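Here is the promised in-class demo. Please do not try to memorize the tokens; focus on the logic of going from shape to residues.
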């Protein structure tokens, strides 16, 4: 093939316009549809190349393709859900997934103690549509908890069980409940023998569970819930039930529960973790909770809307320790507030606080409802009077029927012109007490679906007189016949009146129903307006509280001793922007599930006209949006890798037919020039890399490491004051003896009636709050900026290198040189994308900032153990004295150890960054060297593998057609496997229409659905 023909082939294969446009596309649906097509294309190319996989060069291509395929794998995005007991946290998670009871909501302590991870279920088996893995603690972990439980049972007493045992909310009561749940045969006498406590862990039934993981699945949510409750259901509600328990319960032994379910919210990689907190009496669960918190890329804080504002519950949930950790992690932007139970509202109280100007409609509705209620009462009284008169008429008609029947019989049997017949029994009327009596007497005249307040209506009921009071009446035959006619005429008039009243009653009852329906609708509308007003009032208030809490942290002043270390240039924060950016959702899980047709046994929920009023659909869209950035980034990286592979293959194909046609001497000259340019290029890459690493080291030294030893000294100075505050008087904020002791028993971490306390975090915070300003400035602002500069420097080096090569006239003539220009653009875009390096820094700094506390915990452990063993008179004083003496002894080495560990972690981070960047520039240099070297040398795989050349060339020439349709929003027709099964769609509201490609969340890519042979 001549140069012109080769140029035409290169131009044809070079057309990757659609793929290039996909790299800057924002729609996750289009990106993932494009990735599906890209995977198919790479699969076809790999299948074609596999016929020659014994060739070393081909094996390298296949390995490159497999590496690129891995870029599109779904990434986990973990969201931790926090909330106090009764906040509706489990209900919110259930509603988010359109389930009634996927996460248990009625298991008391089991619900709050068990960590639950919920992820997408990839199992195709119908019988495993709902799956679970339940991991139990180990024998050692249970032994450690038994020690704590027995300590709580006996308290500080030398003899006998704690006097708080009868109180279910006390630590002794909780400990007893746990022991009795696992050991139902255990008696108080058994517990008194404390020497046997360690043998409890080897009980056969318990030993069979400890350290194991149980797996199960179910095809329906109902069956799944029943299976789940066998593991986590807690039956204790009263002491009497505990005493009568006969079956071993497993919930105290569970470490973590993993649930897998099919739902669009989870399908994109979102993982929801129901976090009970890190103050569990079981250390294993606390560690798991802490580990999950470290992995979380987002945090949802759930609080009832009735308390979220007034009691600042959300502010309390995000206590100083949590907020400080979020500050170190740079995670304030990852918090979402969820106000639950919006259907719980007092309309009367809300109307009192609802300004007329803000929502006059609600007050107008209230006024109109007053008028309607009065009209309804009047109409109801009128209908009731009609019903009573109708019932009376019915009774009178029956009386006349009876008299006529008796008289007719007497006339028929009359003798000697005399008619003798018993007098009609005298009837007296009494008040009716039920609606049924009235309905029986008026059947056919009053509808049975009467929904008025008939149970309180008054009617008459006939009461037959004593038979002895009845007498016989004698009339002549003529008189009897006249009386008979008179009775029939009176009966006729009564029936006419009854029938007329019945007809007149229909519109009256219709009007009553209309008024009642209108009252119901307006009442619901008024409640809806009140709910919306409270929601709209709560959002800015919660955002303001959130920003105020961050401001408190930022304004936490240095002590007088460390003013010289204060840095006025620390990261400035826009608190108004911070408040405005906080996502706040006011949701009603109950109303949402009722609208889905679930919770059939519950009463209807008023105040919500459409599903969006519950804000669950908005929360679902927000949850899916949390994964969009990660999904989009994965797709873009995949597209860049795909383009590089396609360009390299194109270069190989073009060079097969149009190798450099110059003399050998000129080839040597070009080769020497290339080698010199490559050496210069590698040097520039290394210079950029060294500058980046040096810059990061300088940032750490200036903002953190250069000051951290002084900060440790200041923290050691303040530590005795913190310890002294724990044992201060109650008026001064000190702890009660039992709380102090319970905290020591749990190695410094305890959650009591007044909230969680963590002695270790309080001591570590003395150091953290001094470090945090420089830490934020380094990892939130300066280090990411430095990495971006590094990416730009690499791109600049690539452009300079290509510019040098463009000066070679013989090379520029080559058709494949145009392909190299496109390849370089792809490389520049790749190196400018520093997402991976930034993520590496974020993860590394998170590992480092979590080293502040462990050293404190270790140094304080001996005194916790000693204090936990104290008992008898004066034990509290001895505990406080021991604590004060211990902190005075260990405070300096404790903080030195803490800072040393943090320093080592940060240095490890820099080394990792150094190693990764070195690998990157080596790869960049090698790949570009190979591509440019192919312009000069005759080395080409398709010269050897001519049999597959045509197939590969056809795939490359048609490659861009695969991506064009994705940009034209036709991927639904192209990728039927990406559509959810009908059973997946049931009961799920997905934002956007089917044709709205830009806004509709796409299904994740499933590589197992890809064809195994070329299309």
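The designed amino acids, position by position:
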């Amino acid at each position: 093939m001549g140069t012109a023909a080769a140029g035409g082939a290169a131009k044809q294969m070079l057309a990757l316009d659609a793929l290039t446009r996909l790299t800057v596309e924002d729609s996750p649906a289009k990106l993932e549809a494009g990735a599906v097509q890209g995977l198919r294309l790479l699969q076809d190319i790999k299948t074609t190349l596999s016929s020659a996989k014994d060739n070393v060069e081909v094996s390298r291509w296949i390995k490159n393709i497999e590496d690129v395929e891995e870029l599109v794998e779904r990434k986990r995005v973990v969201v931790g859900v926090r909330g106090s007991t009764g906040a509706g946290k489990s209900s919110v998670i259930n509603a988010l997934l359109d389930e009634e009871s996927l996460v248990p909501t009625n298991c008391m302590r089991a619900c709050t103690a068990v960590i639950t991870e919920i992820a997408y279920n990839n199992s195709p088996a119908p019988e495993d549509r709902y799956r679970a893995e339940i991991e139990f603690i180990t024998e050692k972990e249970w032994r450690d908890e038994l020690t704590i439980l027995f300590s709580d049972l006996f308290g500080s007493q030398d003899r006998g069980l704690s006097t708080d045992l009868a109180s279910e909310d006390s630590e002794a009561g909780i400990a007893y409940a746990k022991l009795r749940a696992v050991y139902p045969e255990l008696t108080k006498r058994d517990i008194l023998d404390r020497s046997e406590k360690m043998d409890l862990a080897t009980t056969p039934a318990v030993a069979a569970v400890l350290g194991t993981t149980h797996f199960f699945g179910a095809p329906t949510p109902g069956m799944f819930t029943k299976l789940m409750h066998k593991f986590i259901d807690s039956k204790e509600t009263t002491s009497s039930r505990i005493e009568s328990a006969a079956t071993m319960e497993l919930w105290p032994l569970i470490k973590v529960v993993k649930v897998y379910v099919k739902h669009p919210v989870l399908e994109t990689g979102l993982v929801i973790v129901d976090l009970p907190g890190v103050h569990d009496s079981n250390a294993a669960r606390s560690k798991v909770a802490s580990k999950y918190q470290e992995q979380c890329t987002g945090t949802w804080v759930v609080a009832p809307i009735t308390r979220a504002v007034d009691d600042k519950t959300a502010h309390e949930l995000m206590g100083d320790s949590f907020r400080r950790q979020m500050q170190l992690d740079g995670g304030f932007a990852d918090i979402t507030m969820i106000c639950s139970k919006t259907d719980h509202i007092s309309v009367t109280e809300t109307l009192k606080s609802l300004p007329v100007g803000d929502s006059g409609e609600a007050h107008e509705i209230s006024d109109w409802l007053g008028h309607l209620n009065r009209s309804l009462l009047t109409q109801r009284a009128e209908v009731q009077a009609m019903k009573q008169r109708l019932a009376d008429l019915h009774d009178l008609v029956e009386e006349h029927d009876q008299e006529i029947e008796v008289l007719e019989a007497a006339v028929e049997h009359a003798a000697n012109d005399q008619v003798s017949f018993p007098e009609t029994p005298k009837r007296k009327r009494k008040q009716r007490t039920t609606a049924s009596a009235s309905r029986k007497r008026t059947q056919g005249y009053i509808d049975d679906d009467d929904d008025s307040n008939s149970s309180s209506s008054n009617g008459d009921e006939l009461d037959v007189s004593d038979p002895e009071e009845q007498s016989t009446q004698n009339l002549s035959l003529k008189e009897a016949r006249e009386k008979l006619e008179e009775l029939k005429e009176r009966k006729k008039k009564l029936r006419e009146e009854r029938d007329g009243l019945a007809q007149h009653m229909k519109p009256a009852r219709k009007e009553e129903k209309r008024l009642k329906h209108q009252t119901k609708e307006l009442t619901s509308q008024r409640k809806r307006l009140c709910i919306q007003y409270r929601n709209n009032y709560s959002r800015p208030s919660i955002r303001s509280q959130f920003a105020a809490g961050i401001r408190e942290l930022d304004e936490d002043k240095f002590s007088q001793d460390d003013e010289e270390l204060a840095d006025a240039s620390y990261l400035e924060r826009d608190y108004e922007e911070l408040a405005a950016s906080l996502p706040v959702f006011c949701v009603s899980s109950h109303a949402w599930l009722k609208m889905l047709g679930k919770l059939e046994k519950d009463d209807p929920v008023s105040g919500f006209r459409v599903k969006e009023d519950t804000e669950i659909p908005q929360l679902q869209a927000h949850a899916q949006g949390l994964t969009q950035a990660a999904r989009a980034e994965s797709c873009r990286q995949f597209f860049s890798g795909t383009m590089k592979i396609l360009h390299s293959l194109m270069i190989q194909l073009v060079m097969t037919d149009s190798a450099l046609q110059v003399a050998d001497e000129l080839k040597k000259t070009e080769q020497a020039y290339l080698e010199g340019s490559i050496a210069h290029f590698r040097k520039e890459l290394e210079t950029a890399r060294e500058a980046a690493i040096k810059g990061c080291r300088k940032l750490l030294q200036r903002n953190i490491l250069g000051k951290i030893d002084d900060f440790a000294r200041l923290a050691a100075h303040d530590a005795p004051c913190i310890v002294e505050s724990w044992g201060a008087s109650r008026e001064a904020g000190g702890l009660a003896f039992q709380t102090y002791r319970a905290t020591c028993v749990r190695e410094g971490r305890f959650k009591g009636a007044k909230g969680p306390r963590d002695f270790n975090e309080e001591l570590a915070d003395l150091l953290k709050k001094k470090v945090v300003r420089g830490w934020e400035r380094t990892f939130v602002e300066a280090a990411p900026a430095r990495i971006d500069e590094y990416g730009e420097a690499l791109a600049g080096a690539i452009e300079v290198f290509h510019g040098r090569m463009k000066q070679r006239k013989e090379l520029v003539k080559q058709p494949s040189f145009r392909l190299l220009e496109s390849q370089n653009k792809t490389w520049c875009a790749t190196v400018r994308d520093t997402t991976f390096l930034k993520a590496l820094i974020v993860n590394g700094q998170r590992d480092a900032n979590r080293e502040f506390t462990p050293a404190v915990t270790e140094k304080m452990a001996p005194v916790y153990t000693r204090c936990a063993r104290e008992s008898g008179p004066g034990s509290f004083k001895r505990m406080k004295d021991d604590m004060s003496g211990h902190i005075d002894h260990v405070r300096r080495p404790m903080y030195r150890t803490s800072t040393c560990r943090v320093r080592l972690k940060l240095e490890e981070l820099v080394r990792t960054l150094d190693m990764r960047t070195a690998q990157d520039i080596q790869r960049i240099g090698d790949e570009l060297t190979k591509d440019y070297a192919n312009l000069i040398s005759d080395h080409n795989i398709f010269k050897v593998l001519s049999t597959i050349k045509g197939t590969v060339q056809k795939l490359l020439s048609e490659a861009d057609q695969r991506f064009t349709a994705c940009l034209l929003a036709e991927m639904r027709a192209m990728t039927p496997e990406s559509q959810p099964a009908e059973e997946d769609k049931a009961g799920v509201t997905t934002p956007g229409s089917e044709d709205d490609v830009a806004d509709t969340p796409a299904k994740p890519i499933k590589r197992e659905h890809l064809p195994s042979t070329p299309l």
